[in-house]
Amino acid sequence: EAVVSTQSTGSGALDDMNDDYFLPVPTTTQNMLFSSLAAGVAFIAGLIFGRFVVLIGKKHALMLSSIFYFLGYLLMAYSKGYVMLFIGRSVTGFGLSLTCLALSPYISEISPTKHRGKFASIMQLQVQFGILVINSLAVLDLSFRWTAFITSAIAVVNLFFVTIAPETPRWLMSKAKVREAGDVLDLLMEQDPDLVNDEIEVLQRSCRVEIPRDEHGAIPFFSAQNLKPLAIMCVIMIIQQVTAVNAVLADSITIFKDLGFVEPRTCTAGMSAAFLLFTFGSAALTDKAGRKLLLVVFAVLISFSLALFSLAGFLDKGLHMALLTLALGSYVFSFAMAWGSIPWVLSGEMFSLENQGRALSIVSGVNWVFNFLTVFTWPLLIDRLTPRWVWLIYATLMLLGAIFVGLFLPETRGLTLHQVTDLFAPDSPRYVTVVHRISTTESSSGILRRAGPSTTDQPYTF
């Protein structure tokens, strides 16, 4: 999912395609539209696809996203003009939306509780790997048309591997597919009957409908139990964009030119490799140090890095270059260690299965809106205020973000998905239980499982 969702996002992307596509020189508006089009479509599609993902399951949503990527990049590869390029870019936006809605919850739901943060960080590792691939292709001076062909081929390979991957046990259990859920657990837990039994019992609790219903049987989505995690996640996604990561990536070539590097594109690829390397560190620490601690500590460090960018603008050339080097290294380290991956880890943990689709639609929508606003307003702010003051504004906002996380985000490390949603439950919720008869079952692998303490008339809630 990574390469196809990060390919060609620079503000001058169309400028790089002119010679290859024999197109007229693009206007600034066309450049900005092409760069932001996928994000805009992803935002709109996310509002539509949220409940659809819950209905069809994460696996099928990821398969559909690969198809969108394949078609979109194939259209761009064969494009004869701006119209087809824009249509292809829009189609990839649908794939990007499905990826953001399905990938993080999918990883969270197939991961053991004690390793969930580590495995869920894989999403950001994929993104950073995709950015590294694209920047490496830029160093090789490969044309956009060939890059689009390669990307569409990667989408086909991705579709194959997603097809043979299992659906999540949590989704299967929510659809009363007990035997299928057990078979997937056998696969994930190397057919250890004790672990499978324990996990099925956990799934029985986690698939319970945690949301109190009204007198008509409807689930109030905008109840306090839903609004708390929804509000927290929306603010965290805003803070992720306030890190100014897209601006730093967009300005990286300019920064490296200021530092005197002859090959700034090569340096940008090296920076992408550093992002990838430090993201491995985030994956290793997320389940040990905890999500909340890492977000607070590295929000402060990002604020410090952005303040160094600002301070460099007030100094002479010698100190200016030294501070830019320190600021860039500190920034890459701080963002990759927490704010690149952990917001997406949390998005797969914070919501009950029943309301996950609608909630993630809103959360991903907020992320895309502020992604667009950050990229769109950055050059305008630079022109009006000069870079040093813009960096200082973002540094101040990151400090406020650290305070918000410290005050309002609960720690989810070591908790099952059911326990995480219970953190936001009212004191006396009225639960709805659907009774499903479960007896001792045998999976296709021959392992006997008992889903609960009794083998007959066991209440099964989901």
Structure in a nutshell:
The chain has 462 residues and is an all-alpha fold.
Provide tags for this entry.
462 residues; disordered C terminus; 2 strands; mainly alpha; two-stranded antiparallel sheet
Write the layout of secondary structure elements.
Layout: H1 2-6, H2 13-21, H3 28-56, H4 58-77, H5 82-110, H6 116-120, H7 122-139, H8 144-164, H9 169-174, H10 178-188, H11 193-206, H12 224-242, H13 245-258, H14 264-289, H15 291-312, H16 317-339, H17 342-347, H18 353-385, H19 387-408, H20 417-422, E1 441-442, E2 448-449
Antiparallel strand pairs: 1-2
What does this structure look like?
With 462 residues, the chain is an all-alpha fold. It contains 20 helices and 2 strands. The protein has a two-stranded antiparallel sheet.
Strands, total number: 2
Calculate the terminal CA-CA distance, rounded to whole Å.
30 Å
The biggest beta sheet is recorded as:
2 strands, antiparallel
| Percent helix range | over 70%
Mean pLDDT: 76
| Total helical segments | 20
Order of helices and strands: HHHHHHHHHHHHHHHHHHHHEE
Q: Give the uncertain stretches in residue-range form.
A: 1-12, 209-219, 428-462
Shape: globular
Q: What fraction of residues sit in β-strands?
A: under 5%
| Rg value | 23 Å
What structural category arises from helix and sheet content?
mainly alpha
Q: What order do the strands of the largest sheet run in, or round the barrel if closed?
A: 1-2
